[in-house]
Write a structure and sequence with these properties.
With 269 residues, the protein is an alpha/beta fold. The protein contains twelve helices and ten strands. It has helices at 16-25, 47-63, 74-79, 82-85, 96-106, 118-123, 125-131, 147-152, 161-176, 193-199, 209-223, 247-255, and strands at residues 6-10, 31-35, 68-71, 92-94, 111-116, 138-143, 181-184, 205-208, 236-240, 263-265. α1 (16-25) packs across α11.
Length: 269
C-alpha cells in the first residue's frame, strides 16, 4: 500500500474532468493537481515547447512526493516522447492508450474519429495506438483549436450558439466519413459532451479520454500494490500558474462539485 498522492496535470483546467472520475472510483486517494493556466492551451505550441512545459509540470509534481503521474492533457499525452516518460521515478499514465483501447473495443464498424488540439492531431498518436490494437480500423481526425478557449471561458451550455457552431464545423468532415465512435482527445471536451451528442444525433459512441485515463490509473495502482489503505476520503490540492480569484467557480464546473481542497498559485521553473 502507498498513501502518497496521485499527481495529475494539464495545460489548464480540463484535466479536472479526469480528477472528477478519480474522485468517483478512488475516493480515498489524495490528489495533487497542477493546471498550467498561465500558458493554456498547449495545443498551438511547438513540439519543443510542449515537451519543455510538460517536463516542468512533471518536475513540480515529483517534488510533491507523488506516487504516480497522470498526464490529463491530450497534447502532452500525444507529444511527450516515451524515452522521457519511461524513465520517470514513478509510474506514468497518459490519456492516449486507455482511450484508444476503449474506442477499439466499442467500435462496431471500425470507423473511429478523433478530435483534439492541433498538436494532438498532428502527432497521430491516437491513430498509431489504435492501429496497434485493431488492424481493421479507419481513423479520421480533425483538430478543434477553438474548443479549449470556449470551455476555459465557461461557454459549455448545450444551447450556447457559438460553441454549437464551432463543434458542428469541426464535426462535419467526420460525419461525412460515417464514424461510429469518436474519441474526445482532450480532457476539456467532456464538458461539451451533450453538444457533441446532439450534433451527432446520439448515433456515435463518445469516448471520454479523461474517464478512460482515470480507470487506467486505478488499474496501475492495483497492479503495483500502490492503493492507499486510507479509510477516510482523500484530499485534493490544486495548483495553478495564473490567478486564483475565479478558480473555485470555474473548477467546480469541471469537477461537478464544489472545490474543497487548498488552491495555490505557483511558478514553474
Amino acid at each position: 500500500m502507498d498513501n502518497r498522492a496521485i499527481g495529475v496535470f494539464d495545460s489548464g483546467l480540463g484535466g479536472l474532468t479526469a480528477v472528477k472520475e478519480l474522485h468517483k472510483i478512488l475516493p480515498n486517494e489524495n490528489i495533487v493537481y497542477l493546471g498550467d493556466t498561465g500558458r493554456v492551451p498547449y495545443g498551438s505550441r511547438s513540439r519543443e515547447t510542449i515537451i519543455k512545459y510538460a517536463q516542468q509540470d512533471i518536475d513540480f509534481l515529483i517534488k510533491k512526493d507523488i506516487k504516480m503521474i497522470l498526464a490529463a492533457c491530450g497534447t502532452v499525452s500525444s507529444t511527450l516522447p516515451r524515452e522521457i516518460s519511461s524513465k520517470l521515478p514513478v509510474p506514468y499514465v497518459d490519456i492516449v492508450l486507455p482511450a484508444a483501447q476503449e474506442a477499439c473495443a466499442m467500435s462496431a464498424r471500425g470507423r473511429i474519429g478523433v478530435v483534439g488540439t492541433n498538436a494532438t492531431l498532428k502527432s497521430n498518436a491516437f491513430g498509431r495506438a489504435m492501429r496497434g490494437i485493431r488492424s481493421d480500423i479507419h481513423v479520421y481526425g480533425n483538430p478543434c483549436p477553438l474548443l479549449v478557449h470556449l470551455v476555459e471561458n465557461g461557454m459549455i451550455e448545450p444551447d450556447n450558439q457559438i460553441t454549437t457552431l464551432a463543434v458542428q464545423m469541426y464535426l462535419e468532415p467526420l460525419i461525412k466519413e460515417k464514424i461510429d465512435t469518436l474519441i474526445l482527445g482532450c480532457t476539456h471536451y467532456p464538458l461539451l459532451y451533450e453538444t457533441f451528442n446532439r450534433i451527432l444525433d446520439y448515433k456515435v459512441t463518445l469516448i471520454d479520454s479523461g474517464q478512460c485515463a482515470a480507470k487506467a490509473v486505478r488499474n496501475t495502482l492495483l497492479k503495483n500494490g500502490m492503493l492507499s489503505d486510507r479509510t477516510e476520503p482523500g484530499t485534493t490540492e490544486y495548483n495553478v500558474t495564473d490567478e486564483i480569484e475565479t478558480f473555485d467557480k470555474t473548477a467546480s464546473i469541471f469537477l461537478g462539485e464544489p472545490v474543497t481542497g487548498a488552491v495555490n498559485r505557483i511558478e514553474l521553473l
